[in-house]
Design brief:
By secondary structure, the protein is α/β, with parallel strands linked by helices. 35% of the residues lie in helices and 13% in strands. The chain contains 20 helices and 16 strands. The two termini are 40 Å apart. Helix 4 crosses helix 15 and helix 14 crosses helix 20. The structure holds thiamine diphosphate and magnesium ion. Thiamine diphosphate binds next to helix 16 and helix 18.
Length: 621
């Protein structure tokens, strides 16, 4: 195709755009708090919400004006998105890294409908987030014909109430102050989760009849998590003393380095083996000598050995405790629970509702601990330190175990002229990431645990808690936003289906100068579901060879590179060998280190890799 002059101008502009100032309003003078929506904006500012991801809409034009012309588009600063799904996914990615809420603004019922899937995902991810929506005017006499009527719904939050922690629709500026303060308090209390405030257009656009006072937000802060009762700490210690083979399931824990260090000290102090999940953010150094099995989603063979050997399981808010015991041990949920002593530390039960089953199966627990897992670890260490106790460091039962990282490593298996498999790709990415401060914002389905060498709490941000395809690009960009101005290299490794569903999140990264590297494992398929079709066909004695129909994203092949370039990313031709991939990663890292954005289309054979290079056996989701 001939490159036109206009096209060249776009490409040059995209490549060289290095805006120091993004979206700065002019001629603001000295704005005064005069309108209902100014009040909401003012409280938001005082809560230190740095960014607000949004797609604009008239239902919140008053609030939009307050952010631009009253706050000067700072704290929060608008992060403009091309789809509501991305606005929420970006906030989710940001919240996972920072453990701080990002704000989101959504337009009326229609914007909320677009956003409902990632809100569910953020709920499952336990991510803090303050979402502003809008409706109305609630007063029918103030509605413009047609459009204001279709965009006004009664109880709008009912669309998302089952997967948000709290919602409100304040009816006065004073009530709005309280509403935002409460939203902040609730979303920042563990377990975190999104909250929703619906702003009546009438309220937003009403001038203030009286002075509104905004109290010190510090007085409305969330309480710290409860401490575990001392008796429970002592019971846990007694169980550890008795145990021959304690196993810690490191689940949903904090992103703080001090907490990470304490978790390591705890495992070492009590001489426990450790398992981590490839669904959740990094929780423990995966190459540590006590982390015997590679991280996995469902228990791998190595993980099953640990589960079988363990006589004591200490779950630190493991996502699916009953499920892992059932899969790893053949326990039958409550009918025949695992025959081991179980300590389970979690506050998740207070979020349980009757709609979402994301609380998972009910585990049998001997010592329930209702606190934040890192708080519990701190208390356990205090107790151990006080008594100058270290439990058996090298337990006999662990002597014969092989560490996953010492197992004969399957190298990149690609032969001359052979297409690259996901395993080859993963080993190349692993090699590249060694010794670099990399944050994997996401990793794709079927990624082998053997490629997961995580050495800190920001090494990996976990996957989409809600099993929500399309969130990968947004999560990656949100994580990169939170890590902007740090020395970390944010990489999102995502499937082509995930990329294509969320692809126009990329423009936001370019507009906002967010340094980020996106790598697609391009198997040209919704491959996960090919596996399901194969299984169903086999179960029904039907031809499994047709598994690809309705699954392949091919013919025509989508130009993934063009889609990234079109939105201001740099990229080159797709790579299909490990050498080319290694080169592209290096180049991408340099560009990102200089503040840029790079995209790699890594073409792989359809197939999964997490149980070996040739494994083609099962869907993951
Ligand atoms: C919103 C949504 N739609 C559909 C699915 C079902 N689903 C699960 S995995 C998957 C395939 C994703 O494709 P890709 O990202 O390319 O990964 P691959 O399966 O090829 O490894 C699909 C369609 C889902 N989980 N979420
Ligand atoms: Mg795919």
């Amino acid at each position: 195709m001939k490159t036109t002059h206009a096209r060249k101008a776009i490409e040059t502009n995209n490549r060289h755009s290095k805006k120091a100032q993004i979206d700065r309003p002019q001629n603001l003078g000295k704005p005064q708090m005069k309108w209902g929506s100014d009040v909401v904006a003012e409280v938001t500012r005082r809560l230190n919400l740095k960014y607000i991801a949004l797609v604009p809409g008239a239902s919140y034009r008053g609030f939009h004006d307050s952010i631009v012309n009253y706050l000067g588009n700072r704290n929060p600063q608008m992060v403009i998105c091309l789809h509501e799904e991305h606005a929420v996914s970006i906030a989710d990615g940001y919240g996972k890294v920072s453990e701080e809420p990002m704000a989101v603004a959504l337009h009326s019922n229609v914007g909320l409908m677009h956003a409902s899937m990632p809100i569910f995902n953020a709920w499952c991810d336990r991510t803090p987030m303050v979402i502003f929506g809008a409706t109305g005017p609630v007063d029918a006499h103030r509605r413009r014909p047609w459009i204001d009527w279709i965009h006004t719904s009664k109880d709008q939050a009912s669309m998302i109430r089952n997967y948000t922690k709290w919602d409100d629709q304040p009816a006065s500026p004073q009530a709005a102050v309280e509403s935002v303060l409460r939203a902040n308090q609730i979303t920042r209390s563990r377990p975190y989760g999104p909250v929703y405030i619906c702003l009546d257009a009438g309220l937003q656009e009403s001038s203030l009849a009286e002075e509104i006072s905004i109290p010190d937000p510090a007085r409305f802060s969330p309480a710290p998590p409860p401490a575990a009762p001392h008796a429970s700490v002592l019971s846990a210690l007694r169980a550890i003393d008795k145990a021959k083979f304690p196993l810690i399931l490191m689940g949903r824990v904090s992103r703080k380095q001090a907490d990470w260090d304490r978790r390591v000290r705890f495992a070492e102090g009590i001489g426990a083996a450790v398992l981590t999940s490839s669904n959740d953010p990094a929780a423990f150094p995966t190459t540590h000598p006590l982390h015997f099995a590679a991280p996995c989603l469902r228990p791998s063979k190595d993980a099953t050995v640990l589960l079988e050997k363990a006589d004591l399981v200490i779950s630190l808010d493991w996502l699916d405790l009953a499920g892992v015991l059932r899969l790893g041990l053949g326990a039958a949920q409550t009918q025949k629970p695992a025959d081991k002593t179980i300590i389970h530390c979690s506050v998740d039960s207070i979020r349980t509702n009757g709609w979402s089953m994301d609380h998972q199966a009910l585990p049998a627990v001997d010592i329930p601990i209702f606190t934040d897992p890192d708080q519990f670890v701190e208390q356990m260490l205090d107790e151990l330190d006080q008594k100058k106790l270290t439990r058996v460091k090298n337990r006999l039962e662990m002597k014969g175990l092989m560490h996953w990282n010492n197992a004969p490593v399957r190298k990149a298996a690609q032969g001359q002229g052979q297409p690259m498999t996901l395993w080859d790709m993963a080993m190349t990415v692993r090699q590249f990431a060694r010794g670099r401060p990399v944050t994997f914002a996401r990793l794709p389905l079927g990624w082998p645990g053997e490629a997961c060498e995580f050495d800190g709490p920001l090494s990996f941000m976990g996957n989409d808690g809600g099993g929500a395809v399309g969130t990968g690009p947004g999560h990656t960009i949100g994580a990169a936003l939170a890590l902007k101005n740090t020395d970390r290299l944010t990489i999102g490794v995502i499937g082509d289906g995930d990329y294509l569903m969320g692809v126009n999140a990329l423009w936001t990264a370019a507009h906002f100068n967010i340094p980020v590297l996106i790598v697609v494992a391009d198997n040209r398929s919704y491959f996960n579901d090919e596996m399901h079709q194969e299984r169903v066909a086999q179960m029904r004695s039907r031809p499994a060879q047709n598994r690809w129909i309705g699954q392949r994203i091919d013919d025509p092949r989508v130009d993934l590179v063009a889609m990234a370039r079109a939105q201001g990313f740099q990229s080159e031709d797709p790579v299909s060998t490990t050498e080319a991939l290694a080169k592209a990663l290096k180049k991408g890292a340099e560009i990102v280190a200089n503040g840029g954005r790079y995209f790699i289309d890594s073409v792989v054979e359809p197939g999964y890799a997490d149980t070996g290079p040739d494994q083609r056996a099962g869907g993951k989701n």
